[in-house]
Amino acid sequence: MSLFLAMCTFSLVMSITPGPVNLIIVNSGINNGLKKTFAFISGATIGFTLLLLLIGLGLNTFIAKQSSLFTYLSIGSSLFIIYIGYKIIKIKENIDIYNNEEKTPYFYEGFLIQWLNPKAWIASISGVSLFSSSDFVFYSFILIYFFICYLSLIFWGYIGEKVSYLLKIREYLKYLNIIMGSLLILSAMYLFYIQFI
Radius of gyration (Cα) for the chain, nearest Å? Predict the structure, then answer.
């Protein structure tokens, strides 16, 4: 039971904390609603799950042999996430990541972005190192992470849809950008902390 709770907690923290994928989902929820964002959410969840599976099946062995590669990946990922957080804080007019309010993100975009997302790599490598003591534990972790990730991303889309009316007021939008950017920076600092402290 304690291992199950640890897997759930890890999956929830890594899935629910702000990151590039979450922010795109919020943006699409605001502009398009949850229903039209669902394809992107599905792609992101499946893409991440496949990344997690492949790392667990051997990609992590290659990375383990290249210890400096993992260090550089962790530092670079954290700095990239901090940079995105800073850019969001500095946004004044809107949070339109696509620069087109009418663009609806597609399934394949959600799938591919996870492979380019530093947070997804860190979460996958960390998760595999923590929960791969046996095949049963590893595959249980993947299944748990899949469902928690899906629900977390749906939550972000729902939030975007429900707060969209606030964004019509410029002052609220400014504060939302500051909060979202700050949370993103804090999550990057946390990821850095758990890797090096």
Answer: 17
Segment 165-183, tens digit of pLDDT: 666 655 666 677 677 678 7
- Number of other residues whose CB lies within 10 A of the CB of residue 102: 7
Question: What CA–CA distance (Å, rounded) separates 84 from 181?
Answer: 7
- pTM beyond 0.70: no
As a whole number, mean pLDDT of residues 78-86 equals 70
Q: Give pLDDT tens digits for 5-32.
A: 888 888 888 888 777 788 879 877 877 7
Are 39 and 107 spatial neighbours (Cβ–Cβ below 8 Å)? yes
Q: Does pLDDT of 46 surpass 90? A: yes
Sign of the dihedral through C-alpha 55, 60, 66, 72: positive
- Asked whether the predicted pLDDT for residue 76 surpasses 60, the reply is yes
Please spell the DSSP secondary structure of 24-93, one letter per residue.
Answer: HHHHHHHHH-HHHHHHHHHHHHHHHHHHHHHIIIIIHHHHHH-HHHHHHHHHHHHHHHHHHHHHHHH--S
Distance CA 165, CA 147 (A): 29
Contact by Cβ (8 Å): 146, 45: yes
Separation of alpha carbons 112 and 109, rounded Å: 5
Nearest C-alpha neighbor of 119 from the set 160, 68, 84: 84
> Which of 55, 30, 36, 8 has its CA nearest to residue 151?
8
